[in-house]
Design a protein that fits this description.
Layout lengths: L6 E5 L4 H13 L8 E9 H5 L15 H4 L6 E8 L7 H11 L5 E5 L5 H8 L8 E7 H6 L4 H13 L5 E5 L10 H14 L6 E5 L11 H5 L7 E4 L15 H16 L2
Parallel strand pairs: 1-2, 1-8, 2-3, 3-4, 4-5, 5-6, 6-7, 7-8
Helix pairs in contact: 1-10, 4-5, 7-8
């Protein structure tokens, strides 16, 4: 497995112009040092992939423009967030979603509930020149299906890893609702996974209510010494309305990046 570079991610990016605005800040902000990249998160769902009716039709960018959003830049990690909580995605659906990501796609995050391992393996097998990273979201439903037991969740994740179907895991009970994370709880899941994969070959990502004024939610990770390797992802609290159907606010997003970078730099 390739190593997973940590990032500070912004979900719901809808244009290359937004990425360019953020990159100006990322490249000019030298006050605090961190190895975290800028995560550029673009949303897609099974329904938007197939042109089916959904309330997210105007919030997610059309699949035809996604490749243009992902820029070729060493400071970014381009992530396609693919959502399907009904688990109806086929091997060909995975392949089509990846194709819309274009040549600068770095990773695909599966916002799903324990998707079929064999389907993932078959879908990604043809991509031999570029190894797209696979990120699996472990949200509230996935945790519930595992009895809310960190050890059972970790054992299931090891199965994905052993099948070459896991580069990073997103622990996220909020799942795009802006609810503040219970960091102490997420740490128990991180530790259970680390106990089984102690070589840190799988990246860990924390999410839940993060934004420019809530980076302090991550303090327990710093107390546990996990903050240097962990990635984070923000979404709903990057807009004043806290409504995921509204576009992100670039000013709030820039403030979030700066606060997160300060946190990870140890300042």
């Amino acid at each position: 497995m390739n190593s997973f570079d940590p990032y500070i991610s912004v979900t719901d990016i809808t244009s290359a112009e937004q990425v360019q605005q953020l990159l100006k800040v990322v490249k000019s902000d030298t006050a605090h040092k961190t190895r975290h990249l800028l995560g550029v998160g673009v949303m897609m769902s099974y329904k938007t992939l197939h042109g089916l009716p959904t309330k997210w039709a105007n919030a997610f960018p059309p699949k035809e423009v996604i490749a243009n959003i992902f820029l070729d830049d060493p400071f970014v990690c381009n992530v396609l967030h693919y959502a399907d909580y009904d688990n109806v995605t086929t091997i060909e659906d995975y392949r089509e979603a990846i194709s819309w990501g274009g040549k600068h796609l770095n990773a695909i995050q599966l916002d799903m509930v324990w998707p079929d391992i064999n389907d993932i393996r078959q879908a990604f097998k043809r991509y031999t020149t570029i190894r797209h990273k696979i990120i699996l979201q472990v949200g509230a439903r996935a945790m519930e299906e595992a009895g809310n037991d960190p050890d059972i969740v970790a054992e299931k994740l090891v199965e994905y890893y052993q099948a070459n179907c896991l580069d990073a895991v997103l622990f996220d009970k909020s799942m795009g609702q802006g609810k503040g994370m219970d960091a102490e709880l997420l740490i128990t899941y991180c530790k259970a996974l680390r106990k089984r994969l102690s070589d840190k070959c799988v990246g860990m990502i924390a999410a839940g209510g993060l934004g420019p004024t809530t980076i302090n939610l991550l303090n327990p990770f710093k107390r546990e010494g996990l903050h240097t390797d962990i990635s984070i992802c923000a979404q709903v609290r990057l807009r004043p309305s806290r409504n995921a159907l509204d576009p992100i606010d670039i000013g709030m997003t820039i403030d979030y990046w700066k606060e997160a970078k300060r946190f990870f730099s140890g300042a």
